[in-house]
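ping. complex inputs:
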Amino acid sequence: MPGENATIYDIASDAGVSIATVSRVLRGEQNVSAATKEKVQRAIEKRNYRPSSNARGLTSNTTHSLGIVLPKLLNPHYAMIFTGAQEEAARQGYTISLFPWNSLDTRAYDPATMLAERRLDGIIVCVEYLPADRGEQVLASLQNLRRVMPVVLIGCVPPWYDFPAVSNNNAAIMKDIVAYLVSLGHEKIAFIGGIREDNDPMRREIGYREGLREARLPYTDSYRVYGKGTPEAGIAALSTIFDTLKPEYWPTAVIAMNDLMAMGCQTEARRRGIAMPEQLSLIGCDDLFCAPYLYPALTSINSHQQRTGARAVQLLISGENKQETGDWELVERASCARIK
Amino acid sequence: MPGENATIYDIASDAGVSIATVSRVLRGEQNVSAATKEKVQRAIEKRNYRPSSNARGLTSNTTHSLGIVLPKLLNPHYAMIFTGAQEEAARQGYTISLFPWNSLDTRAYDPATMLAERRLDGIIVCVEYLPADRGEQVLASLQNLRRVMPVVLIGCVPPWYDFPAVSNNNAAIMKDIVAYLVSLGHEKIAFIGGIREDNDPMRREIGYREGLREARLPYTDSYRVYGKGTPEAGIAALSTIFDTLKPEYWPTAVIAMNDLMAMGCQTEARRRGIAMPEQLSLIGCDDLFCAPYLYPALTSINSHQQRTGARAVQLLISGENKQETGDWELVERASCARIK
DNA sequence: GATTAAAATGTAAGCGCTTACATTCCGAAG
DNA sequence: CTTCGGAATGTAAGCGCTTACATTTTAATC
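pong. complex structure:
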């Protein structure tokens, strides 16, 4: 109704008090008599008044909005992280906005700019797949950013940076997977990783190798292939394995570093007439929503990405400088089978 | 190095001019001599100064941030819309933040509150699946919202509301699909819709029926099933069809209102030993990223959701009160086949 | 009833910008 | 060398809050 927005002055005059008093009840301060508080609150109700976030921010130098930098939302893995972060932010009265990785390059709209304009109170950066060639550079610039605003990372970071972060225990996950496959009788286990020098992917490879070692299985370079995390990359990777190896060395199980690549593997296996899981077991990682509906339904690792996003927000807001590791579980479906 | 953020005063004194002049070069006004502009710009560079968005917003009553209300991001359909919107917003120097539908209910964090706090310059609301029972109510409250801030809708709206909106031509899409299936020789075509009274789904059903009519095929209630758009709903829907119908009436083709339901259909068909596409053709809608990797690869409708999101942002920012309809294309894959 | 400390409230000075208006500067015209 | 008008620049008043500090009430104590 009131065409224009009411200000604190309107409320003050309506309630017959000073703006300071209104401000006090607004922020729930103690020293306000019950009667006054009543009057003010009624006035607020009546005008449907909300304090201007701009004015508030001007004094507090705050915006109640956060940023999160992710590679791309179209990958459901990131959509999960984002959703978790968004929900937690909302719960705490914050707004969160997305910055695709590439926005880091466009000056007009990079987080650093947002920060400098004080449009952001803090930022979460997902560095899981931080490309190695730019890795150091990016981390260094984040370190800079950090001098001016809170930064929380998602993903693993070299220990000499002490960013607050929440990450996966990549190595442990991989060891878990290898152990699972071994328990099903597999001995020829291939690994399709992300780009080797990438951040988390590297640790996954380490875990894979450790897993093999613990199972007293030999490690072979030719069982280790790389791709950039897309279904197409999965197709290429599986092709490489089956094209370069002699049939007697063909793996009986493949670990894909994420479900996207696993999807590609399924498609390619189908094309080649490789029966799954009879001739080839496959396990992915991320437990995407579509995993149960693939053929065969994909066994995967659920690492609670929403929770990861939520934790990152909590760390960001609370300012704790902790490094946390999420837990995970293996979700058994039809794509892995005991070897005959 | 500059521990604290520079203000316009710092720049002014550095450059030896008044803050008004700094403000002028900041906003690219004309009446500034080249020399002065130079000096000021150098000072800005040196201090890496950025104007505070809060202070700016306080005077202009603006935030350069938008909101978008979507059911849930975990559905890639919405992730696409969001991505398109986000990218366009970024391009125009805006920030956009997500509000899940349910946030409309929690007073502390609903768009209306954001609006009232002037934390948003405008909002996009996706009403594709607006539930009928709350539909009128929601639209009415949006109408209210609109008196205070720009609102753009995504999805179809009863014509008597004149919201700016971008939507799909649902009926035409469905007619297209039916025609396609008919061209493959199908005559028994079932339709798995969204909840009947939902906004866009209703129009889809209309299109389905029109498509049948144009092909001179009879319409049967028992070929029309509903679900709420999830894979599980797809499973249930297909079960219903095949459980309630006598085998001689089993459809040879099924139209699923979205790919999510189609995924469920595939799973259920598999469980029942119905060969796809030999015994049953299936077509979805949305063309999710996983469609090509399903089994069989899913034929679907690509309706350029990213573009939809982007257009919505453009309408919002430009303030045009237009209603637009996106185009689409049918993406042929393996899940539909000519009938034998 | 006077005294006094605590509680309640008010006053006013910013926060960092934009902008209407006032002032100064400059070169062209007289 | 004036005079004048527009261009360049400066001054100051907000925008709607928060908050330190000042003032007024209130109620408890003697």
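The longest strand of chain B covers residues 65-70.
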